[in-house]
Design brief:
- It is built from four helices and eight strands.
- A hairpin with a 4-residue loop joins strand 4 (74-78) and strand 5 (83-87).
- The protein has a five-stranded mixed barrel with strand order 1-4-5-7-6.
- With 131 residues, it is of the alpha+beta class.
- The termini are far apart.
């Protein structure tokens, strides 16, 4: 009887260890380091629209700050090239916490999700890394 119980326990352990754990890719916390950009302008012209002044096609001073203050989505372009739209408390009050960081390198820790190939980071705090 003991031998049978030991075999059953061993088989159950093997099955448990060999069953993959499913982790939803759109439901994890990550720290993203990258440059804050105006998401819409950046996608139109990645070369000229990374700071606060944009070319649309003429020079537009403080374009990103004005757009952010009007609630236009901001994003972080990570060092690996991925683009994460900023959401959550950071996007509240027309991006009030994000505006001072546009064009700068920051670190954001938050919940990352992906839908239709678009990445989003939902966070409450932003940490300035460099200009």
């Amino acid at each position: 009887m003991r031998a049978l119980l030991a075999v059953v326990a061993t088989v159950a352990l093997i099955i448990t260890l060999s069953t993959p754990t499913v982790v939803k890719a759109d439901d994890h916390v990550a720290t993203i380091t990258g440059q804050v950009v105006d998401a819409m302008c950046f996608m139109k012209d990645k070369e000229n629209n990374t700071g606060v002044d944009h070319k649309m096609p003429a020079d537009v001073k403080d374009c990103a700050k004005k757009c952010a203050s009007n609630g236009v989505p901001m994003a972080v372009v990570a060092s690996d090239g991925n683009i994460y739209t900023i959401a959550g408390d950071l996007a509240a009050d027309n991006n009030a916490k994000v505006v001072p960081h546009i064009g700068h390198t920051v670190e954001i820790t938050g919940e990352v999700s992906e839908e239709d190939g678009k990445m989003t980071i939902s966070a409450a705090d932003i940490k300035h890394v460099s200009a």
